[in-house]
Specification:
Chain lengths: ~200, ~180
Amino acid sequence: MEKTEAGALKEVVGTASADISAALSTLASKRVEFAPPTITVASIGELPELVGGPKKLVVGTYAPIYGQMQGNVSMILPIQSALLLADVLRKKDPGSTKALLEEDRGAIMEASNMLFGTYLIPLGKLFNIASLYGIPRMVSTFGDSVADFALLGLGKEIKHVLLLRTNFTVPGTDIRGDFILLLAAKAIEERLEGIKREVG
Amino acid sequence: MPKINLKKELGDAQVALLITPNERYSEIIVDVAKQLASNYKHICYVSLNKLYDPLVKGLAANKVDVDKFFFIDCISRGVIKTPEKIKNCEFLSGPQALTEIHISISKNLKAKKSEALLFDSLSTLLIYERETPVTRFVHGLIGALREVGSKSFLTVLEGDTKGELVKSLGMFTDRTIHF
């Protein structure tokens, strides 16, 4: 049972990565590639080290997950990547965006909305749990504070968290970002323990 | 690396630019906060990078006297619709809300009679707005700080020191301190 669950999870996540690559490529009119995520079932204590960002200012989007599933989902980018991503999404010449003004932020949040749904909907189906995510909001922070957002709102009763981590690139550009998805739910604690034994 | 004594470095001057290297940014901010808590009775801490709760917990864990601080948090409302009302914190709408930030700083410095201000960091402002409006904002802010008389410490990441903002700030601040 545990093997099937871990295997099914890998399959769902792999499919979602291909789907989001296609969706964002259409939005951007450029190829966007998502690498297959690494899947970790972590204890709460392990998270800060696992989700810590680089030692630099980063920007990203964040949304809380509601419903039977608790958690957070975020997309984190080095600032230069965020500026280039805004260029791509708004079909501007590379290097045009010097600061993330309102329209640029809107474009990045729209892309995040698409990205979050593409992972969360199939994961919800896999775990047979309903979840909704909030409207993505733009955040900026210094790398080692990324974990503060990732852990927001996680209750004390949560012991295990499913962490998906991947990166995406736009071939031919310097755009590179990290995507971090954290899911936790009391209802799937046992299943997460089983998956942890399987994938680590 | 020898520790920098902020009080000694600032001397009788009022406004200092603190240039922080990326790799030591977090530890430097804690050290700066600790020194300000030792040297002044009340400090206004403007945070554009760290959420209030982990910021205060992190400072307290590093033995900084957080009771001496009033926080202006420019980040939490970006992720929490209505942050819980906290006595020693004002939550602003975001790092891009320059007018709101200016008003809050001026108002709180006067109301709380803060002897010092820590602004963390100017680099974050440049994510959300072009250099010219940010430069205008910082010039205006420094004017207000001089009027109030608080000792002011404005942080900027080392990577941003080549830009126009930092070059022009060198003329408007009293000291530039490199960590």
